[in-house]
Amino acid sequence: MMFQLDPRLQQDCFVIAQLPLCSVLLMNDCHYPWTILVPRVKGVREIIDLDESSQQRLWRESALLSRVMQSRYQPYKLNIAALGNVVAQLHLHHIARFENDLAWPAPVWGKVPATAYPPQRQDEECFALQQLIEEMS
């Protein structure tokens, strides 16, 4: 059996890029600039489940995505988290936070219902992030 993206991530996100280890997703919630890295490794739940080389690759790809998020959004704070309480498949959230966002200073989870991107804004965000990932890779 090959790697498959968790159905919840498929439902809630758009795939915007493929890095050597991870798929890069955009969460379909226009309240927050929110991307997710998902290592394309079958059956992995924890970072320590990856071999050492893949762990290092994950951190390099996380650093790249962090630089992309900083460049695109200039957040007050960039939150990075690997929770996995709802979706066990290993994934790293990268969320740009602002002192005036709807959840500040609390975590974004469950604070307000998600609002889907309008189609044009979705396309703009995906394209802009793709371009920055290519430029900064």
Question: Could you walk me through the main structural features you see in this protein, from its secondary elements to its overall organization?
Answer:
This protein is of the alpha+beta class and 137 residues long. The chain has a single domain, classed as HIT family, subunit A, CATH 3.30.428.10. The chain is built from three helices and five strands; from the N terminus they run αβββαββα. The chain has helices at 7-12, 52-73, 119-136; strands at 13-18, 22-27, 34-39, 77-81, 92-97. A five-stranded antiparallel sheet has the order 1-2-3-5-4. The N and C termini lie far apart (30 Å).
Task: Give a quick rundown of the structure.
With 137 residues, the protein is of the alpha+beta class.
Unreliable stretches covering 5 or more consecutive residues: none
How many β-strand runs? 5
Strand content: 15-25%
What is the CATH H-level superfamily? HIT-like
CATH topology (level 3) name: HIT family, subunit A
Spatial arrangement of strands, main beta sheet = 1-2-3-5-4
The string of secondary-structure elements, in order, is HEEEHEEH
Protein name: HIT domain-containing protein
Organism: Bowmanella dokdonensis
Pfam family, one: HIT
Domain HIT: 2-104
List the topology elements.
Layout: H1 7-12, E1 13-18, E2 22-27, E3 34-39, H2 52-73, E4 77-81, E5 92-97, H3 119-136
Antiparallel strand pairs: 1-2, 2-3, 3-5, 4-5
Helix pairs in contact: 2-3
InterPro entries: HIT-like, HIT-like_sf, HIT_Hint
Organism: Bowmanella dokdonensis
Protein name: HIT domain-containing protein
